[in-house]
């Protein structure tokens, strides 16, 4: 069904790869996994009104639907290769509006796909409430994937990039206080950068790794649970972008950084002795890395302020939006 829409998607996302024996157009794609590699597979769905606001630019939705999936591969230390796209489009739209949306969406998807040489090899197109579900496939040498298990007491906790921009952008949109100078913050929300190169560089270096989509404490909590350890975080060590600090001041920026859902940075643990080498390597990749705390025995994630006081969960600032 909807063959012309599928043609538009295929043309706009074209990305030749030798390992795609048969791509879009048949009943299934035929793909050649490189000999000896394991396949890392992930899927993420975005639904209008749940994961994004109505009226969102089609290009940004195309970009972000792939970005959140590439972020999952990055967190596994996998090299992205192929994607599938299940697209549900509103039936009430005119054919022209639908084609315009598909063009913008495919262009946004393709812009990021090209950066990572990802081939869109198939999908499904249906009518219904606007939603998009992307499945990604990547390669990882056997036994080399980064998982949530493996953090050990004594490890340092690090994050890539900076935290808090995306949740600050959401705050600006909700309160209708965004202005032109907030473009860098809004870009972090609408076009997140998956840390694919960082994930690959962390193979064999990180003990545990995960991407941040729900918030630092929640996502680091998954590492702690899977590894059977606890984490202590220094709130004032959290890396914050110059744009975030300039817009909200250092203290509010810290609260946004703690809250920090949707940034799609990586949080990972590694031996203290390797921190300097990792920080160097990730600086060379452009995203950088910052040590924010350490792994200890126990369970859960605790956050400490500059004076060494433990912050109560209720006072950590998840809802501390400045008025
Ligand atoms: P079928 O009925 O066999 O599932 P479809 O008409 O759904 O066939 O799809 C035809 C071809 O187009 C298939 O190769 C499918 O993978 C591809 N395709 C359909 N929708 C999309 C999409 N949104 N993005 C990429 N490829 C798609
Ligand atoms: Mg189908």
What does this structure look like?
There is one protein chain. This protein is α+β, with helices and mostly antiparallel strands. It has two domains: 2-140, 2-Layer Sandwich (60s Ribosomal Protein L30, Chain: A); 156-311, Phosphoribosyl-aminoimidazole Synthetase, Chain A, domain 2 (Alpha-Beta Complex), CATH 3.90.650.10. It has ten helices and twelve strands. The protein has helices spanning 3-13, 58-76, 95-115, 165-174, 183-190, 196-202, 216-227, 242-248, 250-259, 275-284, and strands at 20-22, 30-31, 38-47, 79-89, 119-127, 131-140, 155-160, 208-211, 230-234, 266-271, 289-296, 300-304. Strands 8-10-7-11-9-12 form a six-stranded mixed beta sheet. A four-stranded mixed beta sheet has the order 3-6-4-5, covered by helices on one side. α1 runs parallel beside α3, α4 packs across α5 (183-190) and α8 (242-248) packs across α9. The longest helix has 21 residues, at 95-115. The termini are far apart. Mean pLDDT is 94; it is low at 314-323. The chain binds adenosine-5'-diphosphate and magnesium ion (MG). Adenosine-5'-diphosphate binds next to α1, β4 and β5.
Overview in brief:
The chain is of the alpha+beta class. The protein has ten helices and twelve strands.
Could you name the CATH class of the largest domain? Alpha Beta
CATH superfamily of the largest domain: PurM-like C-terminal domain
Which spans have pLDDT < 50 for at least 5 consecutive residues?
314-323
General shape: globular
Features of the shown structure:
alpha+beta; Phosphoribosyl-aminoimidazole Synthetase, Chain A, domain 2; 6-stranded mixed sheet; binds adenosine-5'-diphosphate; binds magnesium ion
């Amino acid at each position: 069904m909807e063959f012309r829409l599928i043609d538009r998607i295929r043309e706009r996302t074209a990305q030749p790869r030798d390992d795609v024996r048969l791509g879009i157009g048949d009943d299934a794609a035929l793909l050649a996994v490189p000999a000896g590699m394991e396949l890392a597979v992930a899927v993420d769905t975005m639904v209008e009104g749940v994961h994004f606001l109505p009226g969102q630019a089609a290009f940004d939705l195309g970009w972000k639907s792939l970005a959140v999936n590439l972020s999952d591969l990055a967190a596994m230390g996998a090299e992205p290769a192929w994607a599938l796209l299940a697209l549900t489009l509103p039936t009430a739209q005119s054919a022209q509006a639908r084609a315009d949306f598909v063009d913008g969406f495919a262009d946004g998807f393709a812009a990021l796909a090209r950066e990572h040489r990802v081939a869109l090899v198939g999908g499904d197109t249906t009518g219904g409430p606007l939603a998009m579900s992307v499945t990604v496939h990547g390669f990882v040498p056997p036994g080399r994937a980064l998982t949530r298990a493996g953090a050990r007491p004594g490890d340092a906790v690090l994050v890539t990039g900076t935290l808090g921009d995306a949740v600050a952008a959401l705050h600006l949109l909700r309160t209708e206080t965004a202005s032109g100078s907030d473009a860098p913050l809004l870009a972090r929300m609408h076009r997140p950068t998956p840390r694919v190169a960082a994930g690959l560089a962390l193979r064999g270096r990180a003990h545990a790794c995960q991407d941040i989509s729900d918030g630092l404490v929640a996502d680091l909590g998954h590492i702690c649970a899977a590894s059977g350890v606890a984490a202590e975080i220094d709130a004032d060590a959290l890396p914050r972008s110059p744009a975030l600090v300039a817009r909200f001041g250092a203290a509010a920026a810290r609260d946004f950084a703690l809250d920090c859902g949707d940034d799609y940075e990586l949080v990972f643990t590694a031996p203290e002795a390797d921190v300097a080498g990792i920080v160097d390597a990730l600086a060379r990749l452009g995203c950088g890395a910052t040590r924010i705390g350490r792994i200890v025995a126990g369970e859960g994630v605790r956050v400490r302020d500059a004076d060494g006081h433990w912050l109560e969960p209720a006072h950590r600032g998840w809802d501390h939006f400045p008025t």
